[in-house]
Write a structure and sequence with these properties.
It comes from Pseudopedobacter saltans (strain ATCC 51119 / DSM 12145 / JCM 21818 / CCUG 39354 / LMG 10337 / NBRC 100064 / NCIMB 13643). One of its GO terms (biological process) is regulation of DNA-templated transcription. GO terms for molecular function: ATP binding; sequence-specific DNA binding. This is Two component, sigma54 specific, transcriptional regulator, Fis family. The chain has about 475 residues and is α/β, with parallel strands linked by helices. It has four domains: about 130 residues, Rossmann fold; about 150 residues, Rossmann fold (3-Layer(aba) Sandwich), CATH 3.40.50; about 70 residues, Helicase, Ruva Protein, domain 3, CATH 1.10.8; about 60 residues, Arc Repressor Mutant, subunit A. It is about 50% helix and about 15% strand. The strands form six sheets. A five-stranded parallel β-sheet has the order 2-1-3-4-5, with helices on both faces. A five-stranded parallel β-sheet has the order 7-10-13-6-14. A two-stranded antiparallel sheet has the order 8-9. Helix 14 runs parallel beside helix 16.
Length: about 475
């Protein structure tokens, strides 16, 4: 229900307007002078203001000017019994939505009110959409450490060329951002940037995803599908986690890179594609080649230019800049004043292990913003940086004691069944990871869950390789 404020020094006009608007199911408040009206505008959220021009204490034009300085998007409809064209023009110049003469015509009043409310809604929606669009824009690569400066310099040199690029680095270090900037600064900017997470697609579907398929090529192929290579035609194809791609798919990607041609699954026609490929992985592909999991010829095709993104622990000097930037962004998203991060808090953040890299840092900053006071201190960092310590490892909570010769947890320490399930799940995953020497792919296969799901569990429980 829209909230409307009426500011008019004539009781009869206020009562008439209130009756009309309340009959139309609007929520209405009214005052008899501009000072009280301006005070209400500052304190409450109105969708529309109907304001008389000639009033004692403060006239309507002054209310309009001061009101819009407080709430720039608030629609004002000005009312006057002595209306002239000059008055209407002046009100419009000062930002009024419309001007109505007294006594107001009922139909004109209601049409004007609805138009003003619709305009207010459109302004709000436009701002929200602009905010969303700004978030989708490629953010800057933040940092001035030597490693980051080298990456920026490499991007400037490589992006305008057609050279293929292999981006390596740990999860959450920013490989995708590097790929986006390679596209942004290339001659293919006007073309699409198509991203494929090879680890998230089952091996039996990866070929259909990349190259598309013809109708009837397999049981669920009820219609023709255009693959990612075709979608990226004229632009850039970003193959994330390419180290997880099946050998059969690797062979087809190699052919596509060699000949710039693809064939859809179940099809016979060769399709020309003009695509620049950027690949990324968190694996050591040379070790994968030795293990027989990755093709050496594909490796050399992709590794024309190699960009390695260092983990956050190797560029701790960038943490203050990253933290401040994340803090400002998150506070803006939440519609709250930007919080300060103390120097001691920055030093405490630098000392953390950051197994999740930039992604983990952003999550920690968001947690600190929510849980801390106006200034984030080093004590806040110690208390909230690892959410699992207070949940999964409180002091004297999970003391293991022997019972009939078997080590068991102290069951009285668990507040609920869910707490114990989380504890048991964490210990099980930790055991399996250590057993497989922290090979995530092998562990995921061993415990029969998707690799991406296992990564989520590792992050949830704060598991780190010792």
């Amino acid at each position: 229900m829209a909230k409307i404020l009426i500011i008019d020094d004539e009781r009869a006009i206020r009562s008439t307007l209130r009756d009309i608007l309340e009959y139309e199911n609007f929520e209405v408040e009214d005052v008899d002078n501009g000072i009280d009206g301006l005070d209400l505008i500052k304190k409450k959220n109105f969708d529309l203001v109907l304001c008389d021009i000639k009033m004692n204490k403060m006239d309507g034009m002054e209310v309009l000017t001061k009101g819009l300085s407080v709430k720039p998007d608030l629609p004002f409809i000005m009312i006057s019994g002595h209306g002239t064209v000059e008055t209407a023009v002046e009100a419009s110049k000062k930002g009024a939505f419309d001007f109505i003469s007294k006594p107001p015509d009922l139909n004109r009043l209601l049409i004007t009110v609805r138009n003003a409310l619709d305009r207010g809604s459109l302004v709000t929606e436009t701002k929200a959409l602009k905010q969303k669009v700004s978030k989708t824009k490629t953010r800057e690569i933040l940092g001035d450490s030597p490693a980051i400066l080298k990456i920026k310099e490499t991007i400037e040199r490589v992006a305008p060329t057609e050279a293929r690029v292999l981006v390596t680095g740990a999860n959450g270090s920013g490989k995708e951002l590097v790929a986006r900037w390679l596209h942004e600064k290339s001659s293919r900017l006007s073309g699409p940037l198509v991203e494929v997470n090879c680890a998230a697609i089952p091996s039996e579907l990866i070929e259909s995803e990349l190259f598309g398929h013809e109708k009837g090529s397999f049981t669920s192929a009820v219609k023709q599908r255009i693959g990612k290579f075709e979608q990226a035609n004229g632009g850039t194809l970003f193959l994330d986690e390419i180290g997880d791609m099946s050998l059969s798919a690797q062979a087809k990607v190699l052919r596509a890179l060699q000949e710039n041609k693809i064939t859809r699954v179940g099809g016979e026609k060769e399709i020309d594609v003009n695509v620049r490929v950027i690949a990324a992985t968190n694996k050591d592909l040379l070790k994968e080649i030795d293990s027989g999991n990755f093709r050496m010829d594909l490796y050399h095709r992709l590794n024309v230019i190699h960009i390695h993104v260092p983990p956050l622990v190797e560029r701790t000097s960038d943490i203050p800049l990253l933290s401040e930037t994340f803090c400002e962004e998150i506070c803006n998203d939440y519609g709250m004043p930007t919080k300060q991060i103390s120097l001691a808090a920055h030093e405490a953040l630098k000392a953390l292990p950051w197994s999740g890299n930039i992604r983990e840092l952003r999550n920690v900053i968001e947690r600190l913003i929510i849980l801390s006071d106006k200034t984030i201190t080093d004590e806040d960092v110690k208390l909230y940086s690892n959410p699992n310590e207070s949940i999964y490892q409180p002091v004297n909570t999970f003391d293991i004691h022997a019972q009939n010769g078997v080590a068991t947890p102290d069951f009285d320490s668990f507040a609920s069944f869910q707490d114990y399930k989380d504890y048991a799940e964490k210990e099980y995953i930790k055991f399996k990871l250590e057993k497989n020497n922290w090979n995530v792919s092998k562990t995921a296969e061993d415990i029969d869950i998707q690799r991406s799901h296992l990564y989520s569990k590792i992050e949830k429980f704060g598991l780190k390789r010792e």
